[in-house]
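Most newcomers find our protein records easier to grasp once they have seen one. The structure tokens are whole numbers drawn from a learned vocabulary of backbone shapes. The record below serves as our worked example for the rest of this section.
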Amino acid sequence: MQEYIDAAWGWEERLQREGFVTSLPARGFQILQGCGQRLGCYYLRPNTGSLLLEMILVEPDCQGQGYGRLMMNHIKASARRQQQAVFLRVLKTNPAVEFHRRCGFAQSNADEHSLEMVWQGA
């Protein structure tokens, strides 16, 4: 994601590393594995009356093979069981914006660099 963060705010390695470790502890990630390798992961945080999808990542070599959709389906199933919406924030320059739209997320807000998106359930 360095490319998208750098385009929006500039990249400061130490700040990025410290911020990531502080705000998204490794133990909170759900990891998708197959054939003995890590395929992707996501970080879903409970929020007041909703769920916040902090991050969803697919290994570069595994992109375009349906693993992001598989994780998103799991996230949405969890939200349905809890009867909660899922919110996320994505940089406007990130091609994942279109992925989130295809997964049923709609824009709920925006600022100069980011879109806030929501999936209300079905």
